[in-house]
Amino acid sequence: MTRGARARLAVSRGVALTLAVLLGVWLGRAGSAPYRHGEPSRSGAAEVPATATSDSTRPPGAPTAAPAAPGLCARVVDDSRRPLAGCLVLAEALRPAGWLTRTPAAERPAAATRTPVDGRFALDRPPATAFALVLDHPQFPPRLLLLDADTERGAELGDLELRSSVGLGVTVYAAGDRRGVANARVRTQPALLDPRLGPLARARLERIAITDRDGRAELHGVPPTALRITVAAAGFATAEVTVPPAVAADRPRRTRVELAVGHALQGEVVTPAGLPVAGAVLAASPAVAGGCAQAGTTDALGRFRIEGLAAGPHALCVTTPGRASVELRIDVPARTPLRIEQPAGATLEGRLLDAVTGRPVAAARVRAVGEPGSPAPPLRDARSDAQGAFRLDGLPPGRTRLLVTSERCAPLWTGPLDCGSGPPAGPQLELRLEPGPVAQGVVTDESGTPLASAVIEMVDGNLDGTSFADLLAQAARGPLDPPAAATRCQPDGTFALPLPVAPDARVRLCVSAPDRATLLTAPVTASAGLARIGALRLPPARTLRGEVCDASGAPVAGADVVAEPLIPAGVEPGGPTPVFGRAIAGRDGRFAIGGLGPFGYTVRAVAPPLAAPAGQELRPAVVRVELRTDSLAPLRLVLR
Fold first, then answer.
1. CA 573: distance to chain centroid?
2. What is the pTM of this model?
3. Sheet of strand 281-286: strand arrangement
4. pLDDT digits (tens, 9 = 90+) for 353-373
5. What values do phi and psi take at 533, rounded to 5?
6. How far is CA 621 from each of CA 442, 444, 490, 545, 548, rounded to the nearest angstrom?
């Protein structure tokens, strides 16, 4: 063979080898290609993540083959198992519920998409923590799921079904003559909503309709649960009623709403010199139950008009940035237009210093609380900067008291301070904060070995006996804001935690460590600047597992499962006590609550809103368990 022939043969072999390698790589990638939204798999079945549930617990219609791409995938179908196109899918992170999470209620991330013709959707970046998943289609009642999915490795929810409903008929009529009210705006939303839901999820659970000339409105796609209906119409007072859950899936609900004659408040907001105040927000709240609050804003000339008010006494609050808040009691209807004088707000400036070191105290909260017994205490607060400086604007002229709280200092109440209108005059206010009492102790395991990784947090001692449901209700009314204090143990297990409380305050400490039960200390009262906790022994953590299902055995995804410690009412615990445990049931209805101690617990499972079939109401399931050992069989909580 000539040299040229050998060269050509070598080149051809090299090309063939290169093509074989590329073909092998391509076939390997094709064989392991992740499932993509809207594409049928090559095996004829959609592919799911490696962590998907087994066939015995997989939801109906869930795919059965290989792993999916990271994210959240599912298919939306109707009650005839047909795919639904154009369904809005919204995922929004849940709001923390009170002090149990120790997480500030910051931004709640959200992700949204719409289903195509095949009904499948994929959210590439849903919230990484527990979140609410809302399916909203105009022809079906919305569906809400509370999930805690592993979106990093992928989560396949299978088929998510939207059930049909017969709707809700609302007839709006005027009080007295019983005539229908046309063009009334009817808005419905579930009567019971989880306080952790964000604003986007709440908005998608609403339905709106306008009445016809006979005062009738038909609302489609409303859930069969109890509903709160708000009706507003020109010339009438806004009314709010609650309708009970549907009796049966094939029986439409009908309700009648009576509207009383509405009244309006109008007038102007001016300065003491008679100049108009633009942008003032006015909120009128009825002083008796049964009415609806209304709000308005002044225009460039300081004029306002608030409509839809029922007759009777109302509290009218006027707020404007940089001006003092004004609160009045008004009888509706008012005989003459109102003229409200809003004085310029006073300003308080000051500086916070450590009473021992003389250094500035940063990130302290300064709140103006007003004089005790004042009719309208000001609600103004500010944070001190790195130099300890703070500024409070919009205070009403007069006498005001300040409450200063910090992470490492005792709270400070000032005496009455005289506030004049306008900018501050005279020297800057200087406040010195005394160090708070110190809690000292040592944390070990059951054998006495120090736990250097233990974390100690301060908890309000006044929350003794508060149930988890009460905490959720408090979170719904407003975020709990106890002073924050936390530290970590030294290598020998000892700790010293400065407490931002008064010396005579009752506090409890929450102590946690990896693979150990989380416990609360007995309530202690600091005296002489020291609170001795003693030795705290953390037992090994127990994990409570189980599943939540309905009477038919179908899993209830998103059920809220709470393990509440069994502490006799009215009995002061003499030692460490367990804390609440909580978990959200997954798509297969299973849950796991870790970090529990060897104590007795009441376990309560509550179905998420809109989870019950049409015409049914899922009641909570409650059991009592003892976690003395790890031999407890998985629980089965049935919502009937």
1. 31
2. 0.67
3. 294-297, 281-286, 312-319, 326-332
4. 999 899 999 988 888 876 555
5. -90, -30
6. 39, 36, 43, 15, 9
Which of 8-12, 230-234, 275-279, 406-410 has the least mean pLDDT? 8-12
Q: How far, in Å, CA of 1 to CA of 513, rounded?
A: 78
* Tokens matching residue 142: 């919305």
Q: How far apart are CA 621 and CA 640, in angstroms?
A: 8
Q: Are 425 and 520 spatial neighbours (Cβ–Cβ below 8 Å)?
A: no
Instruction: Compute CA distances 152 → 72, 73, 220, 462, 598, whole Å.
Output: 9, 12, 37, 40, 33
- Residue 98 is given by DSSP the state G
CA distance 600 to 603: 10
Give the mean pLDDT of the chain: 76
Number of neighbouring beta carbons within 10 Å of residue 82: 9
The residues, any chain, with a CB within 8 Å of residue 531's CB and separated by 6 or more, are 437, 438, 439, 440, 499, 507, 524, 525
CB 305 within 8 A of CB 262: no
Rounded to whole angstroms, the Cα distance separating 105 from 492 reads 35
Q: Residue 27: which H helix or E strand, with range?
A: helix 3-31
Higher pLDDT, 196 or 116: 116
Instruction: Tell me how far apart the alpha carbons of residues 311 and 568 are, in angstroms, rounded to a whole number.
Output: 48
